[in-house]
Design a protein that fits this description.
The protein is an all-beta fold and about 110 residues long. The chain has a single domain, classed as Beta Barrel (OB fold (Dihydrolipoamide Acetyltransferase, E2P)). It has no helices and 8 strands.
Length: about 110
C-alpha cells in the first residue's frame, strides 16, 4: 500500500459571497445525477493509495457546504492546492463517502 497524505483547511466563512459565480450551483444545493457547475475553495487534499488505481481526493467547499471531488488515476494535479478556488463541472453521485463528483472538468481560478 502507498502513503496516505491528508491536509485540511477550515471551511470558508458563511458570509463569503466570493464562492458564488453566475451560472453555478451552491454546493449545498447539489442534486445527485444532475450535471452541475460549482465553484469552491479546496479545503482538503488526500491521495487514496491503491496498488491498481490511485485517486486524488479533494474536498471542495463554499458557504453552503462541501463535496468530495475524485480524480481516479491521479496522484496530483498541478495548481490544485489548499485554499485554491476551482470551478468544477460534473455529475454528483452518492457513494460511501457521501456525495462525490468523479473525474470532473475543472478550471483553476
Amino acid at each position: 500500500m502507498g502513503i496516505l497524505r491528508r491536509r485540511q483547511l477550515p471551511a470558508p466563512a458563511p458570509d463569503d459571497s466570493s464562492s458564488m459565480s453566475i451560472g453555478t450551483t451552491l454546493i449545498g444545493r447539489l442534486t445527485v445525477r444532475v450535471p452541475v457547475t460549482i465553484v469552491g475553495q479546496v479545503l482538503g487534499i488526500r491521495i487514496r493509495p491503491s496498488d491498481e488505481l490511485p485517486s486524488l481526493v479533494v474536498r471542495l467547499g463554499d458557504d453552503s457546504g462541501s463535496v468530495t471531488i475524485v480524480w481516479t488515476g491521479r496522484r496530483s494535479i498541478g495548481g490544485v492546492t489548499l485554499g485554491r478556488r476551482l470551478r468544477v463541472e460534473g455529475t454528483p453521485v452518492r457513494s460511501a463517502e457521501g456525495v462525490c463528483i468523479y473525474n470532473p472538468m475543472y478550471q483553476l481560478l
